Amino acid sequence: MAYDHRDIEKKAREKWAGLDLYSTDLRDESKEKYYLLTEFPYPSGDLHIGHWYAFAVTDIYARMLRACGKNVLYPIGFDAFGLPAENAAIKNGIDPKEWTYANMARMREQLVSMGASFDWSKEIVTCDPSYYQWTQWLFTKIFEHGLAEHREASVKWCPKDQTVLANEQVQEGCCERCGTPVEEKRLTQWFLKITDYAKRLIAGLETLPWREEIKEAQRAWIGESEGAKLRFDLKPDSQGRTLGSIEVFTTRPDTIFGATYVVLAPEHALLRQGFAGQALKNQKEVDAYIKATSKKTERERNENKEKTGVKLEGVTAINPATKEEIPVYIADYVLASYGTGAVMAVPAHDERDHEFAKKFGLPIRSVIKPTNWIVYTADGRRISIDELSEEERQNLFAHSPSFASAPILNPGILINSGEFTGKNSEEVKWDMVKYAGGEKTTQYRIRDWLVSRQRYWGCPIPIVYDREGKPHAIPSEHLPWLLPTDVDFKPTGKAPLASSKELKERVTKIFGEGWTPEYDTLDTFVDSSWYFLRYLDHKDAHDFSDAALMKSWLPINRYSGGSEHTTMHLLYARFFTKVLYDLALVPVDEPFMERFNRGLILGPDGQKMSKSKGNVINPDEFVQKYGADAVRIYLAFIGPYNEPGSYPWNLDGVASMRKFLERITRLVEKHAVVSPVHTVPERMQQMIARASVKVAQDGDRFKFNTSVSALMILVNELEVSTTVPKTVLQYLVIMLAPFVPHLAEHLWEKLGGEGSVHKQSWPAEYVVTAAQEVEVVVQVNGKRRGVITLATNISEADATTAARTLPTVSVALGGKEPNRVVYVAGKILNLVV
RNA sequence: GGGCGAGUAGCCGAAUUGGUACAGGCGCAUGGCUUAGGACCAUGUCUCGCAAGAGGUGGGGGUUCGAGUCCCCCCUCGCCCACCA
User: Is the CB of A212 less than 7 A from some atom of nucleic acid strand B?
Assistant: First the structure.
């Protein structure tokens, strides 16, 4: 064994513990600041390979930045509230707090053992009252500014976890945590009004140099649609009493003349209010449909796309454009939570409406004629549909099933549309809105952020209710509003805090008889929406952070994390920052300058790791056998870290890195003793200079795979040299240090280096000098015909003359004169004949 | 169904702006050193060809002196969203 990694890694960590290498002085103005953030972990217990990938590789960059002279803030903490602790409590009878703190203790040790250079002096823990006091304080500020609302709405409910979920936490109709199909419930809950910020959340993306796919995913999630609100009045009943009106949202107001019925979501408010206090003629049938819908899970509602619905007998709407009386339906294909919860149905120009109309035998009226449609006539000619006569067109529609059965979705020329007939639908769209008495609006797909959770292990919502049930923010002098401990955790569908006697007594004592507490806790995503602000001033008991430090350290330079947070945490954190910016609490309105989503480590079989597939890699095995350093550098080498790709774990990968490290150790041992310090030959200066630039540049791009490759090339080059000066070896070790911090420390000592290798500067003594001569590829007509070595400053004419002396070139030219020469200095010379 | 991204050797992957396609590694092969080695060292490793050379980045077309890179069509895979009016 060339080196004993257990001994080396242990000794290195002991050495660092005595040196306090990574406590960042936030007020040091002498160096350029760099705030490098990596998503803080949930204390689940053990570090799996994903944790290693997240923390070890980002750590490499933190170390590189320090070596390059930056004042680096690289903090860590724990996102410590959450369901697993509570589930463990229910299952094993352990206190969630104990469970969480025990896990954190274990994970701290593991994080240290991977050689991560976190600044532990600034650690935050979201379940600690000193932290959640400020989560609560910020919530009260948001509440006071009207951006937190307590209101009744249809919400997603997970029957297994017995709690509501945010829209973002529902995936394919199932609970993001446990996979149980979610249900819809009508509940009064707390919402943060993220929809008020939808426009700015989209606009803000423009200013960020993020990967386009991340921005696009956020834009799609926010889902901006421009359209109109139109009012369909209901026809008064036989006694002349008004029945009100139905407001719809549409992106296609140009099709208003084709609206032949109106559809309400089964949860629509009108159905609860009733129609002038009168029962519908088929009230029973309608009620049964509403009830059946409410029983369905979201998944059931989506899976069966066969259209269902019921006509509201006795209610008639009036199309505001045609003034026609049209029927009103309820159907579950219309969602209560989008737009106004009602649509005008235009079966001729919308697929869903078309399907529904066919099933219920409703009139389908075309109001748009497509333009520039290329069709094939019976005799095989290709012509535009515009060139057909009306008769031919009708004939085509009658005989072509696709024309007859499919709605026309594109805009075109209006037909059957009163005074708008013959006009271009896109051009007169907004005039038609005016004509129909509607107004232009923008609708967003994103829903307000539901933050109430009927669970125990979370931040208590800092709200109390007065005798009338009106919510009030808990004044700051009573914060932190402590999570009670006399609580029954068992999920019953009611918030566990409701079982706390202490909490009720606390409220009575402070606010008076008749006042009641809020029993729900906050979604843990609220805790993590501002944690990066707290690192700057993690102990402050008087403020959530430090204004001066926020000014000098924000925005965060680079944020590294997982792509699963693109439309959750990342969106929430941006929203929070914008709100706090508006409240003049933070100095920036975008928190993260750069964002990098790392990829996924797959099992050796190329499949996603899972216990059931038996392809789970346990990092500890590899750490024990080959050392933390070998695992670190393998993870750096496995693939580019700047794109969310997925990389299969190569079972020989860590071993091969270990071999590389052993070769380095032998190289250092061989030359450290025999070669005294002497001048570094030009050739080696160039080797070091090239590696230094390449490793650092690729590190900046989060392409550690090619950084490692550059180090391998350097080692390969040095291995074949008979003598290697100590200076060169020291530079090599300094460049290795971010990747293999323990071994580098050991080798640094072997080389007689002073202090710690992690205090050394990145090699910058040598610069890559421009070569005097360079190899240029010679092409004839774009085909490679040879290579010549030319002075870098040679003229095109001289280069051409030189190239033509090559036999292969003169053969290829065949005696002809080139009529064009393309010369890219230092790269290529192309003779075109 | 919609959106986004990606397809380069047996495998992971290199190739800043269009400029020598396959760097680095894994695996494999041959040889050396060894009692032995799953250790170490050396050499080789896209295809055809003795060679000169020719072909080659999912398939087909195009732009260009020159295309992995840009444009159009198609195929496959991955991720996200999914009755959003």
Answer: yes
CA distance A811 to A113: 65
pTM here is: 0.92
Task: Kindly report, residue by residue over A213-228, the tens digit of the pLDDT.
Answer: 899 899 999 999 999 9
Which nucleotide lies nearest residue A353, CA to C1'?
B85
Helix (H/G/I), strand (E/B), else coil: A162: coil
In angstroms, the CA of A734 and the C1' of B36 are apart by 39
A613: how many CB neighbours lie within 10 A of its CB?
11
The yes-or-no verdict on residue A400 having pLDDT over 80 is no
CA of A780 to C1' of B56 (A): 20
Per DSSP, A234 falls in state E
Between β-strands A783-791 and A773-780, what pairing exists: parallel, antiparallel or unpaired? antiparallel
Residue with tokens 């029983």: A295
Please enumerate in sequence order all residues whose Cβ is within 8 A of that of A489, keeping only pairs 6 or more positions apart, or say none. Answer: A86, A89, A90, A96, A456, A496
Write down the ipTM of this complex. 0.94
Whole-number Å distance between alpha carbons of A261 and A240? 22
Pairing mode, if any, of strands A224-234 and A245-250? antiparallel
> Tens digits of per-residue pLDDT, A624-673?
999 999 999 999 999 999 888 889 999 999 999 999 999 999 999 888 76
Q: How far is the CA of A544 from the C1' of B44 (A)?
A: 64
User: CA A783 – C1' B55 distance (Å)?
Assistant: 13
Closest nucleotide (C1' vs CA) to A638 is B12
The Cα–Cα gap between A387 and A371 comes to 10
Task: Please confirm whether the linkage preceding A480 is cis (ω < 30° from 0).
Answer: yes
Strand B: positions under 7 A of a protein C-beta atom: 2-5, 11-16, 19-21, 23-27, 39-42, 52-55, 65-67, 78-85
Report the distance from CA of residue A1 to the C1' of nucleotide B42 in Å, as an integer.
22
> So what's the pLDDT on residue A582?
97
